[in-house]
Each structure stands twice: as structure tokens, then as C-alpha cells.
Amino acid sequence: MSAAILTHEKFVTDAPAPASAPVAAVKAEPVDLPPPVRRHTPLVERYQEEIAEFLRHAIPIAFGMVLFVVAWALVAKGSALPGPVKTWHSAVQVFGDPFYRKGPNDQGIGWNILNSLGRVGIGFGLAALIGIPLGFMIGRFRFLAGMTSPIVSLLRPVSPLAWLPIGLLVFKAANPAAIWVIFISSIWPMIINTAAGVREVPQDYLNVAKVLNLSEWKVFTRILFPAVLPFMLTGIRLAIGVAWLVIVAAEMLTGGVGIGFWVWDEWNNLNVEHIIIAIFTVGIVGFLLEQALMLLARRFEYR
Amino acid sequence: MEKFVSVEQANMSFKTKHGSFIALKDVNVSIREGEFVTLIGHSGCGKSTLLNMVAGLLQPSSGVLLCAGREIAGPGPDRGVVFQNHSLLPWLTCAENVYLAVERVFGATESKAQLKARTLKALELVQLSHAADKRPNEISGGMKQRVGIARALSMEPKVLLLDEPFGALDALTRAHLQDELLKIVTKTGSTVLMVTHDVDEAVLLSDRIVMMTNGPAATVGDIVEVNLARPRERLALVKDNRYHELRGRVLEFLYQKQLRPAA
User: Fold this and answer.
1) Are strands B79-82 and B159-163 parallel, antiparallel or unpaired?
2) How many CA atoms lie within 13 A of A33 on its CB side?
3) Which of A80, A302, B190, B202 could form a disulfide with B90 if both were Cys (CB 3.0 to 4.6 A apart)?
4) Does position B260 have pLDDT exceeding 80, yes or no?
């Protein structure tokens, strides 16, 4: 957990001065130091450093990738699993025409991804809309925390797919049921992290609010919200991870257009290359979502 | 003697796992208008507790606290507090931190331009106009503490409460800020109650030094009147015998009468 995000950086440690130090003899004027001389490094040298830095990062990644592909090729040899080359050719074909429509069950991978993202977006958005304010209230009011904590602890570990039948029963349609599963699985991290963030707002800040006699609204906008924001973003990041994880499974069960359904459909067609492509696609999209949120979170770190 | 702030027969006890802990017992302190009073004592003697009671952050278990003739029922903008760890909001710039206080006190009666002018004036008072648009993590510890002082002063409080404001700073910065505070207080004529554990600081700044006994059940042990003329000059005081005598009296209290075994 990112509890450390809010803790204060201490610039000066509390080192007690010796009692006999002649503090009084110290001239209190600030001393004007000459401005530090900026070192001009030649351009080539500077680039060299950057290239070296890049290589330090890139070489292990490249090694890992190559090793992975080699291992994959070895495993694929002599089994039903398609190898990297075959999959690559197939991927070029699939991504060459991502937005075709040939009937309800045969659409381009672009549509599949967008449909899945749409479901995740709606379910996740609704979860944020309800989970974050709820988290704030649970963090702020002890009574509410006591009320909800057994329910949250009970329901949180339930596998998301267990909620699917309930969704199908209530909504009587596959698409809302899938969105419901996303909603229910991504709401917990948001509630829990937001509530934890509210509880961990440093007492110092609340004391400031008290001595300045700030209104509830100002306390919320100037202190609580900014202080909780990093925790909230952690919750959102966890939630979107779970949501993207669950969507594939949910769509396998509910059908329609979507990356999960596509996987199942291609399994029925015994088109294993496409399944592998889908796995990579899911991985890459999930990675991009995570990175986007990390980028957002970094903007709100006050350190 | 006219009492501007007064603490009368105040007791403070906290509930702990092992029953109640009496922090302060029968404390009586009074401060005149425009007076600079310091509370000094060993750590854990409850001096910060007493200050927090005057700030209204803590309610006494029994006894009465008054400020300008009114009972202190809670925190209020008539008492500006400077905390030891500056307590600036890290997501606001220095100016915004001060503005938050200014807006709260004068927002109902003054225009935005006036509020901004007050904010800048307060920063100017602590010589930080240049850092107005910086975030707290972009400035030094001493500067942060000065913003804290500016924030407290910007509210034009009746009393300025300082809780070991320079405790976390190095000796040089501390000396510098003490001189600044001395100048500011001379300029504004503020009534000040300050908690410290630095004997030199106490003698240099205060009109009276309230020395607290060790806790638990700490109380006022003795009061030293610092009858040194103002304005005071750090370097001149070093050669002043009365300064050394006063310093000696505080040290004697702390290290002979109230010496506590080394922690």
C-alpha cells in the first residue's frame, strides 16, 4: 500500500545542538554563496550517458523477450501449439483489418477490444461513482465503518464470476450481467483504499483545519480530497486491473462481441493462433491501462 | 496586571490502557496583552499539552482557560498556531497555504484582491515574497517554518501560539529565525505564547519564562521575569551579565531542581 505517499519528507533532522554551543555568537545574516558553477559537458558525452542508461534497461528486456520466444518455439515444436512465426503471420492478418463486420459473431479484433473496453468502462465507472464516495464516508464515520466492514470482508473474497448468475437473473440479459460482474469486482479495491486513505490523513493536516476553523467543504476540497487522492488512485489502479482480468472470463460465459468471447469462439473454431493473439492483446491492453493510471498517479504525488 | 490570556486551575488527564494519566495539575498562567511568554521544561512535561489547550485543540479536564475575557471553547482564528512540523499542505503553494487562513478570517468582508494583498503582506513580513508560488517541498525547513508563521500572523490573531517552532531546525537557521521573530513581534506587537526547550531562545525572546516541573502531574514550577530592555540584540546580550544570570536561573531550574534521569 502506498501509505508512504503522504508521509512527510523530513528535510532537517532534529539533531540537538550541544548545550554549550555559543549560539549567541553566530551572526544571523544569511551568507551569500557564489552561484554554483554549472558544468558544461560536451554533447557527445551527455548522449553517451543516456545511451548507456538506455542500454542498461533495454538489454535485459531484449534478452528476456528472445529467451521467451525461443522457449515458446521449442515447446511448439512437435506439439499442437502454433509457434511464434505462425502466430506472427496470423497476427499481421488479424491486425491488418481490425474493423471488419461479417455478422454478429464475426467481427474484427478492433471491435472486440473496443466492446470489452466499453463494458469495463461502464462497470468500472459505476463502481467508482459509488465506491469512492462510499469509501470516503466509511473512512470518515466510524459507525458506518463498523456497519459495512463485515459485509465487505464477506463479499470481497468471492470470485467475480460467482456474481454472474445473479446478474443474469436480475437483468435478464447477457451484456448488463457482464457489466455487473465488472462493477462488483472492481468496487471493493476502491472502497477499501479510499477508506484507508481517509483514515490515514495526517493528524497535522486535520489540526490545521481545526485551528483555521475551516468549513466542512474547505476541509474536503483543500485537505481530505488531495490527501486521499493518491490512495484513491491506488484503489482505481487495482480495480482496473481486476476489471480487465475478469472481463475475459465474463465474456466467455455471456457471449456477444468482445475479446473474451473471441477467445472462446476461436477455440470452437480450433484457431489456436488467434487464441494466442488474444492472450497477448489482453496483456498489452491491461499493461497500457495500468501504465496510464500510474502516469496519472505520479502527477499527484506531493513529495 | 491585566490578564489577556489566562489559565486558571487547569487540570488535564488522559485515559490510557492503565487507567487515567494526569498530565497537568493545577496550572495557572496568565499573559498580558503584548507580552511574550515562553513555556519551558523537559520533554514530556506537558508544555505542548498546555499550548494545545490554549489553542483549543484539547479541552481541560477541569479548570478554565480564557482569551480576551472569553472562555476558550475550541480552536478559533483569534489564536494563530504555528506547529513544530510546519504543517503546510504539500499540494498548495506557500501563498495558497497562507491564503487558506486569510480567506477563512477575512473572506466574508473583503474582496479577493484585498485577500491576496493580505497574503502577500504576510509573506513579505517573513521575507518570503519570492517563494510565494513554490510548493512546501521546494523550500528549506526554515522557510517552511516561516510560511507557518506567516500563515498564523495573516489571520491577525489576538494571540500567537508557537509550539517549538524552531525545534526541528539546525542551530544557525534557528538563530536566524529567532531574530526574525523578534523583529516581527516588535513590529506587530503580538501577544505570544511559545513552547520551547531551548534556554537561550527563551531568554532572548520572552518577557517571562514559565518553567514547568516534570510530569506526570506537571505544573508551573517557577516564573522568571526577563527584564532585559528591548529591542534586544543577540550579540550585545552575550556581554550582558543580567542575560547570563537569567540564563543561569533557568538552567538551574531545569538541571538541578528538575533533573530527570537520562532517558
Assistant:
1) parallel
2) 3
3) A302
4) no
pLDDT at residue B209, as a whole number = 94
CB contact under 8 A, A211 and B234: no
Rounded to whole angstroms, how far apart are CA atoms B188 and A246?
64
Contact with chain B for residue A8, Cβ under 8 A: yes
Q: How far is the CA of B247 from the CAs of A29, A51, B185, B199, in angstroms?
A: 24, 62, 22, 7
Bigger pLDDT: A49 or A132? Answer: A132
Q: How far is CA A173 from CA A112, A165, A170, A184, in A?
A: 19, 11, 8, 17
Q: Is A156 on the interface with B (CB under 8 A)?
A: no
Residues 6 or more apart in contact with residue A17 via CB below 8 angstroms: A23, B170, B171
Of B90, B92, B104, the CB nearest to A213: B104
Kindly state the cell numbers that stand for B235: 550579540
Using CA coordinates, name the residue in chain B closest to A213.
Answer: B76
Tell me if B237 and A10 make a contact (CB, 8 A cut-off): no
For residue B244, the chain A residue with the least C-alpha distance is A24
Does an H or E element contain B16, and which? Answer: strand B5-16
Q: Is A284 on the interface with B (CB under 8 A)?
A: no
**What are the phi and psi torsion angles at A233 (to 5°)?**
-65, -35
Q: Are B64 and B42 spatial neighbours (Cβ–Cβ below 8 Å)?
A: no
Confidence of residue B170 (pLDDT cuts 50, 70, 90): confident
Model confidence pLDDT, tens digit, residues B50-84: 999 999 999 999 999 999 888 998 898 889 999 88
| ipTM score assigned to the predicted complex | 0.81
Q: Which three cell numbers stand for residue B95?
A: 501563498
Q: Which three cell numbers stand for residue B75?
A: 480552536
The grid coordinates of residue B191 equal: 501577544
In A, minimum Cα distance to B92 occurs at A222
Asked whether the predicted pLDDT for residue A17 surpasses 80, the reply is: no
Return left, alpha or beta for B37; rule: phi > 0 is left, psi -120 to 50 is alpha, else beta.
beta
Q: How many CB atoms lie within 10 A of CB B184?
A: 20
Write the CA distances from B182 to A23, B167, B178, B179, integer angstroms. 16, 16, 6, 5
Question: Pick from B101, B171, B234: which is nearest to A21 by CB?
Answer: B171
Question: What whole-number distance in Å separates Cα of residue B182 and Cα of residue B230?
Answer: 10
Q: Does the pLDDT value for residue A34 go beyond 90? A: no
- Residue A90, min C-alpha distance to chain B (Å): 50
pLDDT confidence of residue A303:
53
B91 closest CB neighbour out of A15, A22, A302: A302
pLDDT band, very low/low/confident/very high, at A6 (cuts 50, 70, 90):
very low
Alpha helix (H) ranges present in chain B? 47-55, 94-106, 112-125, 141-154, 171-188, 199-205, 234-238, 241-252
Distances (CA, A) of A235 to A127, A183, A250: 11, 14, 22
